[in-house]
Design brief:
By secondary structure, this protein is an alpha+beta fold. It has six helices and six strands, in the order ααββββααααββ. Strands 1, 2, 5 and 6 form a four-stranded mixed β-sheet that branches. A two-stranded antiparallel sheet has the order 3-4.
Amino acid sequence: MPNKKKSKEPFWKAKTLAEMSQKEWESLCDGCGKCCLIKLEDADTKELFYTDVACHLLDAKTCQCKDYKNRRSLVDDCLQLEVNDVEEFKWLPKSCSYRLLHEGNDLPKWHHLISGDRNTVHKKKMSVKNRVISEMEVMEVAEHIVYWV
């Protein structure tokens, strides 16, 4: 029986999103925190607007969820990204790894799987680190639309 050669390509190039293990899938997250921002949708045009208002569970200094394990039971509209929902990923920022790979693009150079450093996303200002406020501190979310996402 011939030996199978192991692919020298990284898993995100060698596999589809559906073929990835749970560990590989989770590792795609770049830790930017943009998915935790409150987004507004224009009812007529369906255009999506990002705000600098974050879910109350997002730690603005680390861009990590304060209770990742229980987030979906604590936040009604917290979504679990799943491969079956890739067609719905248009609400994710254009820089999101899941969206990039689904759309046939490669990971950016600042992504930790390429750079080898989980802080590159922050160093390159691709995250929401220290740029957001908690939804608990906001009266009118529509006043907080931003265009840097």
